[in-house]
Design a protein that fits this description.
Length: 253
């Protein structure tokens, strides 16, 4: 069940184009796919708690470095807050994105914000989205469009819920976890089923160093599948996605 109200204004052709894409809530899904991988991440000990801190990553596309990313996670006042920032340059286009996820200690969604800037020469396009939760009700703001949505299912936000379940299971090989999540970049009104699978422990190389890691696959059917390698704290060491003719890697620095 969805109701919407729109505040419209005119400025320039580029602003109108921006507003139209913002209202869809699906702009530049590849950027979102890369960013959400950061959210989940050298020894053989299994993680025991959701980590807090900041981490830096290099971003590669088909073997060439095209940008960088960072993640900061905190736990305060009964809430988890995770901020992910990423800059990617492909040809003449530079994409800058920031995602902020706020959830309770029980992983109930509070707010989900994405801020995206696309730069090509002198042209700049901003695509901002914010979802505020009250039970199954969502207030979704995308550009100048505001939607009030009632979801059919209870949802989580991607990241800490799944990591907490992996911690509970001790990252045991063949552990499988699934739950519906809210991801407006895929569909702003219908919950999406996310599945996570533990392949097991693996040794990986980053530069000249080797690390013991937990290999986890996170996937959404017909959309994306990420191979992720997490350290003993549950922080991402490396992630890899192959989509169409693109191979995307995130590597911790």
């Amino acid at each position: 069940m969805t109701t919407s109200r729109n505040n419209t204004h005119s400025d320039s052709d580029s602003t109108t184009h921006q507003s139209g894409q913002s209202q869809k809530g699906k702009a530049h899904p590849m950027v979102r796919v890369i960013a959400i991988a950061l959210f989940l991440g050298t020894c053989t000990k299994a993680p025991s708690a959701i980590p807090s801190g900041s981490w830096q990553y290099a971003l590669y596309l088909n073997g060439s470095r095209v940008g960088s990313a960072s993640i900061t996670q905190s736990h305060e006042s009964g809430r988890y807050v995770t901020s992910t920032e990423m800059t990617m340059k492909a040809g003449e286009v530079t994409s800058i994105s920031r995602t902020i996820i706020t959830e309770t200690e029980n992983f109930t969604p509070v707010k989900y914000e994405t801020y995206n800037k696309i730069i090509k020469g002198s042209m700049v396009q901003n695509i901002d989205t914010a979802a505020e939760f009250s039970g199954k009700k969502v207030k979704l703001t995308a550009g100048t469009s505001i939607q009030e949505i009632e979801l059919e299912k209870d949802v989580k936000l991607e990241g800490n819920y799944f990591l907490s379940k992996l911690i509970e299971a001790g990252f045991k090989k063949d552990t499988k976890i699934e739950h519906y999540i809210y991801e407006p970049a895929i569909d702003p009104e219908i919950p999406i089923l996310m599945k996570v699978y533990v392949v097991g422990r693996e040794t990986i190389a980053i530069g000249e160093k080797t690390y013991q890691s937990f290999h986890v696959i996170e996937y959404i059917e017909k959309f994306k599948s990420f191979d992720m390698y997490l350290d003993e704290k549950g922080v991402l060491l490396k992630a890899e996605l192959t989509m169409l003719n693109m191979n995307i890697q995130l590597v911790r620095e």
